[in-house]
TrEMBL record:
Residues 526-605 form the Glycoside hydrolase family 38 central domain. It holds the Pfam family Alpha-mann_mid. Belongs to the glycosyl hydrolase 38 family. Gene3D superfamilies: 2.60.40.2220, Glycoside hydrolase 38, N terminal domain, Glycoside hydrolase family 38, central domain, Golgi alpha-mannosidase II, domain 4. Its EC number is 3.2.1.24. It is an enzyme of class 3 (hydrolase). This is Alpha-mannosidase. The gene is AMS1_1. Keywords: Glycosidase, Hydrolase, Metal-binding. It catalyses: Hydrolysis of terminal, non-reducing alpha-D-mannose residues in alpha-D-mannosides.
Amino acid sequence: METQMSYLQKHPDVTKSRLNTFMSNSQFKDVNIHAALYEARVSGAAHVSLEVWAAPGTERPTFEHAVKQEFTAIDGSDHTFGPSWSTHWVRASLKIPHEFAGKEVRLLFNPGCEAMVWSADGMPQQGITGGGGADKRVEYVVARKAKAGSSVTLYLEVACNGMFGLGDYTIGPPDEHRTFRLQPVELVVRRVDGMALYYDLSVLKQMLEKLPRESPRWWQALSTANAIMNAFDAQDAATLPGCLEIAKEFFAATPGSATHQVYAIGNCHIDTAWLWPYDETKRKVARSWATQLGLLERYPEYMFAASQAQQFEWLKELYPGLFARVKEAVKGGRFIPIGGTWVEMDCNVPSGESLVRQFLLGQRFFQENFGVRCRVFWLPDTFGYSSQLPQIVRLAGAEYFFTQKLSWNNINKFPHTTFNWVGLDGSSVVCHMCPAETYTAEAKADQLIESVAKHKDVAYSNESLYLYGFGDGGGGPTDDMVERMRRMQDVDGLPRSRHAHPDEFYAHVEKKAAGLVSWHGELYFELHRGTYTSQAQTKKNNRMAEYLLRDVEMLSAVAHARTAGFAYPADELTRLWKLVCLNQFHDVIPGSSIEMVYRDSDRMYADVLESARGMKQAAVKALFAGSGLCAAERAGALMVLNTTAWPRTEVVAVPGGNRGAMRGCEQVRKHDQAALAVAAAVPGTGVQLVAPSAAAHSVPASAYRERGSGLVVLENLHVTAKFSAQGQLVSLVERRSERELVPAGQAGNVLRLHDDIPLFWDAWDIEINHLEKYRVLQAASVEIVDEGPLLASIAIDVPVGGQSHVRQFVSLSAVSPRLDFACDVEWHENRRCLKTAFTWDIRSDVATYETQYGVVQRPTHRNTTWDMAKFEVCAHKFGDLSEFGFGVALLNDGKYGYATLGNTMTLTLLRSPKSPDAHCDMGHHSFRYAVYPHHGAFNESRVVQEAYQFNVPLVQLPVDAQAQVNEEPFFTVKGASNIVLDAVKAAEDRRGDVVVRLYEAYGGRARATIATSLGFAAAAKTNVLEEHVDTVAFTAASGGKGGSVVVDFKPFEIVTLRFSK
Ligand SMILES: [Zn+2]
């Protein structure tokens, strides 16, 4: 065919549209580029014969099990797989036609859902993503150079779920009755130069989408594409080399030396559970990474990064052959384990110790299996980042941080791309948020152009990271993507790009670290604020597990140090921590997964809690068997164990039927017949017998109905609290100062039922407009239950309407100003949330909230849009509103969604989203919160300790009547009331050392003496991976066992000490 015009006609828009048509895979595909992509294809029983075996129910059998089953022949042109979540094994017997000899032959297999290709000898080969979406991956290379007439047998493990599960829309609950239709199975041979031209044109087309028309390169791209279309003939493959020549000239032009540098890395974000259960994730990992190993083999320049040690461990256990291949690829330097954590965890809800364990488990796994220490903390998809992370990251042997999630902010645009992120204690890490604003980029020219255009710090950091590859449900880059990356690496009009280890990017950036801007404090995510509350039981289970494991580790470490023959249960503790850390994945603990996931996590938490309770008992028995410890029925006294490091005086309750233990019993609690007594001055990390005299010395608490007003009053030495007939706290007077904390006409314990209809992300988002629409719930009754002297309490009954109901048991003990609210809720709402609100006569521009190993202050006003965006914030065990001289804290035992506007602090108790879990949070809930008024502003208070006590109860040990206490406290912290002793555990390396973690909790300095009665003789400061950092002078105790060390703390510093014999 003669080309009539050698130059571009002056009709650029028509030409650009012509290119779209030329690339279209629907209309005109018989005469455009799609007609040139394959040179041959065959199907039918002569070449492809298929048999199938369907696994029963939702079982996911192994290859070894599946291949032994009875397979039935199917018609490859008419078969349907189903229902949802079922598994079908297909045996494909392939016969290569003679005309395919010497060619690369591919199997085209599109089951409509996900699948794994297995070799006949049981090696996973590649993942298949069926269906018709952009992420489709349905070709598998059967032979790079086929032999004529040869036969190949493959197995295809068909999983009846899509890449994004089975919802009717992105986040819809799974449709349990979905089926998937197998499309005709073929053997195909690609036309090499046709495919090459297709990739060239794809890049040209993408450049035309994004380059400015003022740029000569836009016109050159257009005229190049036009010339190619003119030279192309769909019926004549001989025209292709000419077309490629035209393209080659365009791609030969290179950018200048000052151009932006993109460091590209393939990745496939695999949500460890989300719209599919954990068991499916295990297969997603294998499918995705098998695919990527294939790409690494075929493309020598390609590099791929994968995070989450848990996913590697699953691969190691379930796919040892594939794991061995991954190990080889890691050695080769192009398969890059990254991130350093057990999973890509949520960073709002997990405790400080949990964040440490994420790194401890993760870094140790990567070190042991690959000899790799991850330097980049990798968290592209988590919903907000705690201000303690820079310190923890540093202490975990990493120094860099990657994310991009703040690009989803729905109010303010985050102002930096590459910057120093400075944490609570002043530690900093280099942070980069890829300017392409996605971790699932598709290797497109327009995204590379955006990597420059959206880079906010390009003036002094002219480089960026680019993460590409299908993700969330796994998958990763495709051949097409790697082919495009190859074409785009050095082309004028685009930044220069190449594959690189992210460490290389950060090391390069770090050289200029002193010149980077800084961001101080938390990286608050302005979206997904409902994830502090959704799936309430999961959050509560996590809280319980965190503190129960703390007790188990401390008591076991002490028992091991003290008692010959007591073995520290290291393996079991590691197993349980792995389960806890697993459920902290960034779609599980936030509450954004499907119902199936929570059935799994419920089972895991039940396992964790049961096993931990058993271990705690065993350790207690080993420690106190010689102190008169006995069975509850034979008890003549009660010993109380305090695992916090400060002395405590509390009213303790022993369940009914065990009254004998309570020599000091003065009162029986009404609702459960528990015997009450005062445990006075129980030493930190030590025990004390409950003495009858303690109760006698306390000033009685009382409950009564005030004459005249009818208000119900709870009163003790410290406070007088008055409740209205509506169940609201209408007065709270601190008696020593005679200070009224509730402003006239205002109230606390106001239960509010808000409309809670987010814009889209149902379980994720509580949106700002929920604050505009709510009703206040009114109590039906307020009754006095216990009248003292040790405990005064009332019951408040609040119908919500419909089937929902709140019952509160409000109590005040004789020995504390803390007012406890124990709630039982029947909850059957739809897109409504329940909050409790307290308005205090306190004025402050900031409220203080607990975060991991510290606190964070946030505004109580809406001065700027940044302030306004924090209309719901995450807090751990408390939120506090203080002014000079006085403050009140609101404590909780497993709630995280707080807000303070003016002088009203709210705590979000329950939500009722319907997707992706259609039954989220429906049913019964038990939880507690408490009000703790205190003298002094927050940093002069004991709020941190009080909130700790609210979550870590004293341990009651029945002992015989003659029992004597002669125990020394295990560990004490002297001279610094702002230091909290958190974890005490055996060292991971099992050399018999004990690791103690402490932190400064109020934002000041301290010189603390940490003493131990255990037989240690030396101590060292370590990082959180328990590796030596510094020796510490250990002073042996005179005459006794153990000794002490003196440690200086900076504000919010985390200190890990390692004691050895
Ligand atoms: Zn994710």
